[in-house]
Amino acid sequence: MRETATAPTAPLRARAEIDLAALRANARTLRALAPGAALMAVVKSDAYGHGALRCARAAVEAGASWLGTATPEEALALRADAGLPADVRIMCWLWTPGGPWREAVEADLDVSVSGMWALREVSEAAGEAGRPARVQLKADTGLGRNGCQPADWPELVREALRAEAAGLVRITGLWSHFACADEPGHPSIAAQLTRFHEMLGYAEEQGVRPEVRHIANSPATLTLPEAHFDLVRTGIALYGLSPSPELGSATDFGLRPVMTLSASLALVKRVPGGHGVSYGHHYVTPGETTLGLVPVGYADGIPRHASGTGPVLVGGKWRTAAGRIAMDQFVVDLGGDEPEVGSEAVLFGPGDRGEPTAEDWAQAAGTIAYEIVTRIGTRVPRVHVNEGPSGQEPGDGPGTGD
Ligand SMILES: *Cc1c(COP(=O)(O)O)cnc(C)c1O
């Protein structure tokens, strides 16, 4: 095991260990699931809280040829990273007027365009930069979020082709995004695929020759081969989490959770029965017991909504957040056990040491696992382990994770 930060055994208040071997294995599993498609590793929002640069490098080592981010700033930071191959394609899709179009063109980013304002701004920047912009036209096939409505598609396609003829843009992709891919059989899935085929067909008839056509996120990559097209954009599955428990567990898909969040107990003490615990006294000890102080709170991204429900593994047993989760800390009732102060409290991980998973926290907080990992705060150090050049360390050979 190789570490990139403090050794895993170092006494830290809290740590999010990021297993890059697991991430590489997940990337290979996803590639095997979509063998005809290129793999885009979606590393927006600091790789869903896992650390964008190290995760991007690991994903590329495992065969991802594209990286995806929401904002142009995230994409530009990846392009500036010397640890990534210069030819890796980097796409970003969430633009606002006045964005860094010129920097994006000069950094050879693939930029998403959903409307005429964006096409105008990117064309102008390309003119100034003296080189064509790589543009991917986004279709709203039914999500109702970003993307071009079918009624506006002919104009966007026509003007993009005009800009291409003028040498200002190169239309590298046509793409869209699903609304309900995590609900197998939802009627919107087939409707969106039909609409996507129609909008692709129209653009291609008009003369667009995209390198890639893509619509699949993690759930579609895992369950809808007919949605793979030329490229799949996977975020959550790369981090070893299932997009939704209804779809199947991470294990069902051969994925391994990448993040383990743990903390060192800051205090263990005996208290009498009837003792209120934490703000508001929403928990009162049912009898004499021991309490353990877990030194992470909602400022670290531990959801306050999981007060009274969030699970923690301490000394081999599941304990529950007793009373309110505060900004920096919360308490667990240890039921009379007296683990040493400094003992490890595991909030979530892959689950194979008996610890809860991010999915368990999602259920405890009434949210999704995406939000649990993404919101872990910057005050929690990420400790990247198994960072291996070319992924050649033992036990990480071909086939792992399939
Ligand atoms: C976040 C995002 C993805 C990745 O979604 P997952 O469900 O995490 O795989 C793909 N495409 C777009 C446009 C996104 O915003």
From TrEMBL:
Pathway named in the protein's UniProt entry: Amino-acid biosynthesis; D-alanine biosynthesis; D-alanine from L-alanine: step 1/1
InterPro entries with a match to the protein in the record: Ala_racemase (IPR000821), Ala_racemase/Decarboxylase_C (IPR009006), Ala_racemase_C (IPR011079), Ala_racemase_N (IPR001608), Ala_racemase_pyridoxalP-BS (IPR020622), PLP-binding_barrel (IPR029066)
Q: Which residues carry this modification: N6-(pyridoxal phosphate)lysine?
A: 44
Look up the record and name the cofactor or cofactors this protein needs.
Answer: pyridoxal 5'-phosphate
Its EC number(s): 5.1.1.1
Question: Catalysed reaction per UniProt?
Answer: L-alanine = D-alanine
Question: Which residues does the entry assign to the active site, renumbered to this chain?
Answer: 44 (proton acceptor), 279 (proton acceptor)
Annotated Gene Ontology cellular components are: cytosol
Which positions fall inside the Alanine racemase C-terminal domain? Answer: 258-385
- First-tier enzyme category under EC: isomerase
Q: Which positions in this protein are listed as binding substrate?
A: 145, 327
Cross-referenced Gene3D superfamilies: Alanine racemase, Lyase, Ornithine Decarboxylase, Chain A, domain 1
Q: Which keywords fit this entry according to its UniProt record?
A: Isomerase, Pyridoxal phosphate
GO biological process terms held by the UniProt record:
D-alanine biosynthetic process; peptidoglycan biosynthetic process
* Keyword Isomerase found: yes
Role description: Catalyzes the interconversion of L-alanine and D-alanine. May also act on other amino acids.
Name the protein family: Belongs to the alanine racemase family.
The name under which this protein is listed is: Alanine racemase
